[in-house]
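Progress note, sequence design subtask.
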């Protein structure tokens, strides 16, 4: 498996998390998410070196980041964005491309999921995708989420991250992958040419 993981989250486990965040149990309620996740993952594979950072992924401005968060991105072979707000997604994308770190973004809301792979120097970034639609500011808690969709997207996101790490076969670059749980369909949407992005110069 993966030799090392860095988990970043400032939140604590709540009972309402449990249906969709299956890494946690009732005994974890009230505990730091990263500490509870580390304990569970260590029980699965004690050989994996797990570092935890119990802080929000945020910045004083759109171009600054704490040294610890910046170092975490810079040292990573791939970043998995599992956040549920636009500001964090934009910030993660910005620094992944500034620091030349591949990014696998996953999101789920209602009965829908989406995945996007961005590799600096090889593909467009998440900001290119964001120019094509208006993101909702609602989280999955506010808008609702069909719990199995989160796990489907998360599993696929992990698979894509492993594929990026191994540089294996056909990585879906410049492609938005969407999942519709009501129709049970996956669809791939190619980003159109001509998107003017200062970050990735695509």
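Output:
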């Amino acid at each position: 498996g993966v030799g090392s993981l860095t988990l970043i989250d400032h939140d604590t486990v709540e009972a309402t998390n449990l249906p969709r965040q299956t890494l946690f149990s009732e005994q974890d309620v009230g505990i730091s998410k990263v500490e509870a996740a580390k304990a569970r993952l260590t029980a699965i594979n004690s050989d994996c070196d797990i570092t935890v950072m119990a802080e929000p992924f945020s910045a004083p401005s759109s171009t600054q980041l704490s040294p610890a968060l910046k170092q975490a991105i810079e040292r990573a072979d791939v970043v998995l964005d599992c956040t549920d707000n636009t500001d964090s997604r934009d910030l993660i994308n910005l620094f992944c491309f500034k620091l030349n770190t591949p990014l696998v973004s996953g999101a789920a809301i209602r009965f829908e999921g989406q995945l996007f792979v961005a590799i600096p120097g090889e593909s467009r970034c998440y900001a290119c995708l964001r120019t094509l639609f208006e993101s909702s500011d609602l989280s999955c808690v506010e808008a609702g989420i069909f719990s199995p969709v989160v796990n489907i997207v998360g599993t696929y996101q992990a698979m894509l991250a492993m594929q990026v790490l191994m540089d294996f076969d056909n990585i879906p670059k410049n492609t938005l992958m969407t999942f519709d749980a009501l129709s049970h369909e996956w669809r791939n949407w190619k980003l159109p040419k001509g998107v003017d992005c200062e970050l990735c110069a695509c």
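The helical segments are 33-44, 67-75, 86-98, 126-130, 140-143, 147-166. Work on this subtask will continue into the next period as scheduled.
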